[in-house]
Amino acid sequence: MQIFRKEHPKPQFVRENWENLNGEWEFEIDNGRSGIERGLYKPGVSLSGKINVPFCPESKLSGIENTDFMYGVWYKRKVNVETLFPRTVIHFGAVDYKCVVWINGERAGEHSGGYSSFVFDITKLLKQGENVITVYAEDDTRSPLISCGKQSDRFFPYACWYTRTTGIWQTVWLEHTPESFIKSVKYYPNISDCSVTVEAKLCGTENFNCTVSYEGKTVGEHRTADVAGNMIFTIPLSEKHLWEVGKGRLYDVELSFGEDKVKSYFGLRELRLDGMKFLINGKSVFQRLILDQGFYPDGIYTAPSDEALVQDIELSLAAGFNGARLHEKIFEERYLYHADRLGYIVWGEYPDWGIGASEAISLHTVLPEWIEEIERDFNHPSIVGWCPCNEAWNSEKRDRLASHKQILCEVTKALDKTRPCIDVSGGFHVKTDIFDVHDYEQDPDVFKKNYDRLMTEGILHDRFSAHQTYCGEATFVSEYGGTAYNPEGEGWGYGESVKSEAEFIYRFKGLTDALLDNHKMFGLCYTQLTDVEPEQNGLYTYSRKPKVDINQIRKIMSRKAAIED
Length: 565
Known about the structure:
Number of helices: 8
Radius of gyration: 24 Å
Strand content: 25-35%
Number of strands: 29
Low-confidence stretches: none
Helix content: 10-25%
Structural class: alpha+beta
């Protein structure tokens, strides 16, 4: 069985001493969720099938391709350990939804949340020679207590709900460290004085060194002897290279703490709202975003290769977009790395669909994983904002829903004071830095007339104004278009399907021009990059082939926006 996804899964925190565990694992479906009782976690018990990790069992690349509901799944593999290290941990990029891990039959830990990364220290559970790793995952997309994003709650995909993902769907790997090690690092760039403030969390006591370089040349350094615990220090940079849209100029960082060595990077950039403008490094940048669902025909949630991640960004750039809403999914870190190096702006979002958002217990479910996402992705310069929720409309339980959204926004702002937060994309807004709306009006003339009122009367067209009040905040239409177009047949999309490429281009241009010409809009987000299963409203097919003349799309999307004047 071919081993996929061999590259290091965490480019912003790389140690040389790591082992990729992707490839063939034993596998078994456990819909009765009786496997623990039956002792499937024990080292001597074999599972009935095989699977190709990191692909979910619903996918073709997994070798299983079972698209029915699976409520419990088991994984098992043997790992030979020749040398025992002072510290060994096991990393999981993501497992959907609740995961329990055993090493040699001993419980190593458990994690809930289908999208965030997690790690367990397994040092004391390992032995020299053969070791058995066992993983059990439970999932239920029909549960009101589990966030499922765009995963279908029916047997078949329908409308904008797609094939489910169960169990492991990102890389699994081992990492070895000395007894004293670097736990984490955060970067706070300052463009005005050309410096970076570094917050490092350390375990143990050792000499510490942080060296910053740009294209191989050292531009800053900090050294401290016999340090322990957390450190905060500022490094002046001898050269200024701003991270900008389309120019992902990254500074390389080498960290050492005794014998522990980590390679990392950061981008020198600043975000700020100024009236109706969104500023990057003090310059008004019109956000030409595309809605990206992050689904793949053969891997479902998991890209078949690192090149496939790059391809999706390049397809967007080719069409004139400068960024994306990473929609209803926490994307893997390698995608964000490529966005960082290409200067591609993105919004970090949480896959909140499927959960009963107005119920108090849902906050208990969502908040821990949302905190994990912010902590994991804080250092990525490509992320220009956070959005924990999408389209929450429950007027019957409005008070509880409002409280939930306010708490999520306030926690987000407490964890990250460097980026704006949209509480609920498309409404209803409770506590937000930006007031955005979703609008799938398909008539360009009506669409333009509606949003021209923002310029002439200060009134933002909002189909849900009964639920929320616009008070002049910075704004953009964060979902529009979604025009159904399938040259080879029918497919679901917004509005009546167009019948020709010319009709599609006419509609796309009219809708887009209305927003580019609006000097009180700082951005837009078109739905969407690719078709996904039954949803046929992408600029590209699900297999990433252009459906229309992409050069025409690029010409329309690339012209200067009114707010940039």
